[in-house]
Amino acid sequence: MQRRSFLRAGAAGAAGLGLGLLGAGPALATVTPLGAPATTFAVGVRQYNWMRGNRRITTSVYYPAKGTPGGNPVTNAPVADGVFPVCEYTHGLGGSPQGALAIIRPMAAAGFIVPGPHFGSAGIGDTYNGNLGRDVSEVITRTLALNTANDPLRGHINTTAGVGAYGHSMGGMTTHSLLTIAPDPRITAAIPLACVDMGNPAASVKAKVLFVHGDRDNTCPYSSARQAYQELPRPKAFLTFRGGDHGNYFGDSRTRTTIVDWMRWGLYADTVARDRLRTDASSSGTTWEAEL
């Protein structure tokens, strides 16, 4: 099946639209099973200069930190008590993890270790040929290895819960590539935001997948994301922002609460979070579909 190349001249800036609008949000519910955090955390960040062959993958790793929740990530802050799953984030074309803090920070505050690689010189071709997907897999490997390294995150990383991945635009395509053309069987929960179909599902990956998309997206066609959704097996869900473009729904609290609770279900087995997904996502301007 032919896949559609979508980015045209001038579209690069659209990949980061709206990310600065998303706030830290309220504390999460306090009744949760299987060790899912009952409160939010402060957020710390550490930077790592990793390589995959001759490809540099500078990565900022955001994590739950000791301190008062809220505010900006604190460089090298002490790690919070606990053991946390990994949920990788990939930014859009022309973006950066620092420019996506509005969607990274709530995830780290909710109890996830969030590596955010910076792909400053990458292009869409690196996504279609699988290079960005393989870069992300390397980032995941390096992050998990910190659990036994001489590093402040030692002993704080859950290496058995599976791994999450999410991203927007080029990052959403990269996320979907981890389920298709560059499969990573460690991925057990994924959220492609504003993506296009990157290929047929790989049998080696068993993941809970949530798509988030605006149905008036002129950069990444809504129809392509719908095709990707139809091709994947359940469990899966699709959150449509009716009238939404390539990124204006990032300012909507339904985006934040839905993606965090999807990962809480996928990586913490938090069935309370699963059961509130429809409420998280529902509004007069959204459509929620789920096959759970």
How does this structure look, described?
The protein has a six-stranded mixed beta sheet, sandwiched between helices. The chain is globular, with a radius of gyration of 17 Å. With 292 residues, the protein is α/β, with parallel strands linked by helices. It has helices at 101-109, 124-128, 131-145, 170-177, 222-231, 253-268, 271-275, 277-281, and strands spanning 42-52, 55-65, 74-75, 86-90, 114-117, 163-168, 187-193, 208-214, 236-241, 286-291. The two termini are 26 Å apart. The protein is built from eight helices and ten strands.
Top keywords for this entry?
292 residues; alpha/beta; six-stranded mixed sheet; four-stranded mixed sheet; 8 helices; 25% helix; globular
Which blocks of ≥5 consecutive residues have pLDDT under 50? 4-33
* DSSP E strands, number: 10
**Number of H- or I-type helical stretches:** 8
- Secondary-structure element sequence? EEEEHEHHEHEEHEHHHE
Percent range for helical residues?
25-40%
Largest beta-sheet characterization: 6 strands, mixed
Which helices and strands, and how do they pair?
Elements: E1 42-52, E2 55-65, E3 74-75, E4 86-90, H1 101-109, E5 114-117, H2 124-128, H3 131-145, E6 163-168, H4 170-177, E7 187-193, E8 208-214, H5 222-231, E9 236-241, H6 253-268, H7 271-275, H8 277-281, E10 286-291
In short:
This protein is of the alpha/beta class and 292 residues long. The chain contains 8 helices and 10 strands.
